Amino acid sequence: MKSRASVVGGVAAIAATFVVFVIPFIFIVLTAFKDRRQAGQRDFSWPTEFHLWDNVVEVVTTRNWMLVTAFVNSTILTVVSVTLIVILAAMVGFVLARRDSRWNPWVEFLILAGLMIPPAVVPTIWLLQGLQLYATLHGMILIEVAYNLPFSIILYRAFIATIPRELDEAAIIDGARPLDVFFRVILPLLWPVTVTNIVVQSVGIFNDFTNPLYYLPGNQNATVQLTLYNFQSQFNTSYNLLFTNILLITIPPLIVFLFFNRQIVAGMTAGAVKG
Asked: What is the value of pTM for the model shown?
């Protein structure tokens, strides 16, 4: 009976995944191959002619190669933000897991508050303007780090709790300083959760739409998600170019997930049970 229920559940999960993820992706690919007239019908019909290459060239060259600039900006934003998130979250998680202090409950409260309380856009813009960081890439990097740091801290703290304290004590006996203990003993052991964190945060930041829309105006600061505005307006939308653009900016995160799928699952579950 349990076996039959598990089979039914598995089939249902596969069917739901197909409907939610695969069918929309097929629609995106089909529309990217069509011309403007046929794409405007917005159906699953087979393309009468294949215009993918023409669509790609037009998407890439639109508004003075804006998509290329957006890919550069998104890459810089993602790499720098994820690097800072990994280093800072690992250090905070190490301190919270290893040091029992009366401040720990308050720090944990602030971390949970960062996960639950939605960001205040207008005060954040005022703060960035006061610091002369509004509409700058390094200001956007600080925003991404601040918004994504709480989740990463919780992830690292759960994983570090599974590492025996005896390793720290042995390193200290051998003369290691606190930074040496972290960087030379603990950090190498965090590779599984670090891979997970890098992949999850990279995809999230690379695909972020709302934060660059609020905090990073200007064509020279455009990220890949904001280039979708190039082909849609209030009265007219070029669906063939729009979905070609979507296809181009979807490929990098899709490749990352395909290659690191097992590492993501392993890292997310590694700290679930304390050894």
From this structure: 0.84
